[in-house]
From TrEMBL:
Recorded superkingdom: Eukaryota
Protein name per Swiss-Prot or TrEMBL: Uncharacterized protein
Organism: Ascobolus immersus RN42
Length: 235
């Protein structure tokens, strides 16, 4: 089975399991702690006095935090603490992680490059990817889609002796003469039309929320497509 770069898979897993990378989590925790300290009163809370002291130190905890947050274009010296600092930091970190891990390499290849009218901004996901909570046989097929671990020509002809240039990885099961990627198999291929009719899932639904499989019906549709594709490779 073909696959994508380990970096891509890592980024997908971080995204789907709702993980910020460890240094980012540490920075977020520090920002939350600073928010907490700012809410304390100066009159009778030693922790707040300690904060005011460390603000004077050139290399203290506060100085380090300020330097790290400046990289996110957030300056704690001028920050208005009526706004939620931690939330802004978390948003900025999600975007930073998104760029660092080059999330846009595979599943999003078709979504971002073909369909997205403007550059994708990664929002803070409210919860882990839905497919992770589905029954195992469905979750497995969705994970295959997310990580490009499937037999479609775009991946099948990526590796080893089989390798062909991208534009030559044509679908051999219909006469459209298109590259057989995820979009082709799910949305346009004549060979999988029967499955689309059967499930009545508008493929747009899967595409719309750029990196998610929106519901169980969509997951069952994806599973049916992959079962169909796998059958071509059974002896
Ligand atoms: Zn086709």
């Amino acid at each position: 089975m073909a696959g994508v770069h380990a970096k891509t898979i890592t980024s997908i897993l971080y995204r789907d399991f709702l993980l910020l990378m460890a240094p980012h989590r540490a920075l977020l925790a520090a920002a939350k702690f600073l928010c907490y300290l700012q809410t304390l009163s100066l009159d009778n809370r030693p922790a707040r006095w300690a904060l005011e002291t460390s603000k004077q130190l050139p290399k203290g905890w506060y100085a380090t935090l300020r330097r790290d947050l400046l990289l996110l274009d957030i300056d704690v010296l001028t920050w208005d603490y009526r706004l939620n600092l931690a939330l802004q930091v978390e948003k900025a970190l999600w975007i930073k992680q998104h760029v660092e891990l080059e999330l846009c390499l595979t599943w999003s290849r078709m979504l971002v490059w073909r369909h997205h009218p403007f550059p994708l901004h990664l929002a803070i996901p409210p919860k882990p990817a839905l497919y992770l909570s589905l029954p195992r046989y469905l979750a497995r097929q969705c994970a295959r889609l997310r990580t490009s671990a499937h037999h479609l020509a775009i991946e099948h002809y990526r590796v080893g002796n089989r390798r062909r240039a991208c534009h030559l990885r044509i679908c051999q099961y219909c006469d459209a003469n298109e590259v057989e990627d995820e979009y082709h198999a799910l949305v346009t291929c004549r060979d999988t039309q029967a499955i689309r009719d059967q499930f009545n899932v508008p493929p747009r639904l899967i595409m719309k929320r750029s990196l998610t499989i929106p519901d169980r019906a969509a997951a069952e549709f994806v599973a049916a497509i992959f079962r169909h594709v796998d059958k071509r490779f059974e002896p």
